[in-house]
Design brief:
The protein is an alpha/beta fold. It has 15 helices and 17 strands. The strands form three sheets. An eight-stranded mixed beta sheet has the order 4-3-2-5-1-6-7-8, sandwiched between helices. Strands 12-13-17-14-15-16 form a six-stranded mixed beta sheet, sandwiched between helices. Helix 1 packs parallel to helix 4, helix 3 crosses helix 9 and helix 4 crosses helix 5. The two termini are about 20 Å apart.
């Protein structure tokens, strides 16, 4: 772990507190470098990381210099800040962290409240990208929308809101409408909006997004209404044809698997079309296709090894687990599956397990590397009540080793649940097995 990361992690003691007061003061003291950036802002419960990656890769494939800010990281902290397909270097991370922490110290010395860890990282991101001077920055919201530190961006080129589901209810609200209202906070006056919330699944949430866009005089583009002609899995790629903003996209190939990725892709392509029609970007069709196929996310239905298949998926809430179960069935129907699973205690665990039980009969239960973890013992008991064969091993590395010892009896070794767990397991797999 680098010195910069250690310094940043010291701010964990301030917790995760929403609100723009601290980040606004911090950025003012840093000269407001974020005002130099041309931002595509992406919020949502599930899918926002994939949508960010699709947009980033399409812009990169068309020759633009692009920054990407995402969270959480899977293996290495530096993954959170990416520019031109390179993670921020340790040297730059140290340089910009020291610059930001100097202003944090000034704030507290003046009697102001200390920024949180996420606010510090966001400030580092803004300072780094401002100096890199990219053509565009794809910015993923950390938590919610209204009070997230990324929401200091005043005029995004487009605001994107992906699917809304129950998550972080202690801070975002207890209903889909309340959660949607929070995420709709990234909608800014006169800035176009893309949403992919199907009205039939979350009518109230969709109405909240539409009402907020109307109040902000922002044109809303509903990607959930994209006309789909065909889609499916072919040669372990998703392939689809759809009409998006009046343009026919035929036989688009995606390396990220799952029906949900088609919706994420259509959402990203809707944003791309808006930017193109507004003469903000100039893109070539072949390069769009290239970027869409190139897009890849660590730990999102990631096949990391064959014979047997080792599959990693950070399905960390009910909707994510439902998508995982369906995709496993679509891609590996009839296969013998051994699942290594670990979940955070503040999630809707029982709802997740109601879906996870359909992955198979055999589970190795472990614990994510997080103070928010659910104990392996408790998680194991919940699965046993669902009539599953359960082995409880607290340490992720030991849980993985047990799966490897038993791999001859299975077609798929699936590691699922918290991204903290997925990152830990990915680190323990040998380098030649990783992409």
């Amino acid at each position: 772990m680098s010195d910069a990361v250690k310094k940043i992690e010291e701010f964990q003691k301030f917790g995760s507190v929403l609100g723009l007061e601290r980040i606004s003061e911090l950025m003012m003291r840093l000269g407001n470098p974020q005002k130099k950036l041309r931002v595509i802002h992406v919020a949502g419960t599930n899918g926002k990381g994939s949508v960010c990656r699709y947009i980033y890769e399409v812009l990169e494939s068309n020759g633009y210099r692009v920054g990407l800010y995402t969270s959480p990281f899977i293996e290495f902290f530096n993954e959170r800040i990416e520019y031109d397909h390179e993670y921020i270097s340790d040297e730059d991370l140290e340089k910009y962290t020291n610059k930001v922490l100097e202003k944090c110290a000034e704030m507290t010395a003046d009697g102001s409240e200390s920024p949180t860890e996420f606010e510090v990282v966001t400030a580092v991101c803004f300072c780094y990208f401002a100096d890199k001077d990219p053509d565009y920055v794809v910015l993923e919201v950390g938590l919610g929308g209204i009070g997230d530190s990324t929401n200091i961006i005043e005029s995004p080129l487009v605001s994107v809101i992906t699917g809304i589901s129950y998550d972080h209810m202690d801070r975002l609200g207890n209903t889909l409408e309340e959660i949607a209202a929070n995420k709709a906070g990234i909608i800014k006056e006169g800035c176009p909006v893309v949403s992919n919330i199907p009205a039939e699944n979350a009518a109230g949430a969709a109405k909240v997004i539409a009402r907020t866009a109307y109040k902000k005089h922002a044109v809303l583009h509903d990607a959930s209404k994209v006309k789909m002609y065909e889609y499916g899995v072919k040669d372990r790629k998703m392939v689809f044809t759809a009409d998006i903003e009046g343009q026919r996209y035929a036989d688009v190939k995606l390396s990220m698997l799952g029906d949900h990725q088609i919706m994420n892709a259509c959402t990203a392509l809707t944003a791309i079309e808006i930017l193109r029609k507004n003469s903000i970007i100039n893109v070539v069709r072949d390069s769009i296709y290239e970027g869409m196929e190139k897009a890849f996310q660590k730990g999102r239905f990631e096949i990391i090894k064959e014979d047997p298949v080792y599959l990693l998926d950070g399905a960390h809430n009910q909707e994510g687990m439902e998508a995982l179960v369906k995709t496993v069935d679509d891609v590996f129907h009839g296969s013998r599956v051994l699942t290594v699973i670990g979940i955070l205690a503040d999630k809707a665990v029982d709802d997740m397990l109601d879906m996870a039980q359909y992955l198979g009969d055999d589970f190795i239960v472990t614990e994510p590397v997080s103070p928010r973890k659910m104990s392996a013992e408790e998680l194991g008991e919940k699965l046993k009540r669902r009539k599953k064969n359960v082995t409880v091993i607290e340490e992720p590395a030991e849980a993985l080793a047990e799966a490897q010892r038993r791999e001859d009896g299975y077609d798929v070794i699936l590691c699922a649940g918290s991204l903290y767990l997925i990152g830990e397991i990915r680190r323990h797999l040998s380098d030649h097995e990783c992409k």
